[in-house]
Write a structure and sequence with these properties.
2 domains; two-stranded parallel sheet; enzyme activator activity
C-alpha cells in the first residue's frame, strides 16, 4: 500500500479532487490527507440521517395528536340558549320525558317520575317508587343528582315529616 501525497491532488478542482480520492480508495492506496475524506462523506450522511429522523418525529407527533383527539372525544359544545316552548330543538325534546315514568320504571332523577313517585337508588339501579306513607320507612333528603337513597320521602309533608327514617303523622 502506498500513499498519495496532498500535492498530487491539491492542484485539482474539488470534483477532480474527489475523483482522485476515490481512485486512491479503489486502488487501495492511502491519502496523506485521508481524514478529510470521511468527514465529507459523514457530513452528508449526517444531514441525511438528521433529516430522516426529523421526518419520523414529525409523523409520530402528527399521528399522536390525531389519536389523542380521537380518544378524548373532544367536540365543540353548543353555548346557545335553549329553545323556547313550542320551538323545535333540544329543549322541547327534553320536556317529553318529564314526569312520564311509572312505578318500577328506570329513572335518572326525580323529575322523570310521575306525581306521587320519586326516583330511588335500590339494588337494581334507580327506579320510580311511590312516596312513603305514614309509618313506613322514608328518606329525609335526596342525594346530589336528584334521587333518594333506599326510600322515598313522605307523601304528606315530604322530607320534613321523616323523623328517625319513618314517616310521622303531622299534628
Amino acid at each position: 500500500m502506498y500513499a498519495i501525497s496532498p500535492e498530487s491532488c491539491s492542484a485539482l478542482r474539488f470534483s477532480d479532487w474527489l475523483t482522485c480520492a476515490r481512485n486512491a480508495i479503489i486502488y487501495n492506496t492511502r491519502l496523506a490527507f485521508e481524514p478529510f475524506v470521511p468527514r465529507v462523506v459523514c457530513i452528508g450522511m449526517l444531514s441525511l440521517h438528521v433529516s430522516f429522523f426529523l421526518l419520523i418525529c414529525a409523523v409520530f407527533v402528527h399521528e399522536t395528536v390525531a389519536w389523542m383527539d380521537e380518544m378524548i372525544g373532544q367536540s365543540p359544545i353548543d353555548l346557545s340558549p335553549p329553545p323556547r316552548n313550542g320551538q323545535a330543538g333540544q329543549g322541547s325534546r327534553r320536556k317529553h320525558g318529564k314526569h312520564s315514568k311509572g312505578i318500577d320504571e328506570s329513572c335518572t332523577n326525580n323529575s322523570q317520575c310521575k306525581s306521587g313517585l320519586c326516583c330511588v337508588l335500590g339494588r337494581g339501579g334507580k327506579v320510580c317508587r311511590p312516596k312513603a306513607r305514614i309509618g313506613h320507612p322514608c328518606s329525609d333528603g335526596q342525594v346530589k343528582g336528584g334521587y333518594y337513597p333506599d326510600h322515598c320521602p313522605c307523601a304528606q309533608g315530604g322530607e320534613d315529616q321523616c323523623l328517625g327514617k319513618i314517616c310521622q303523622m303531622t299534628i
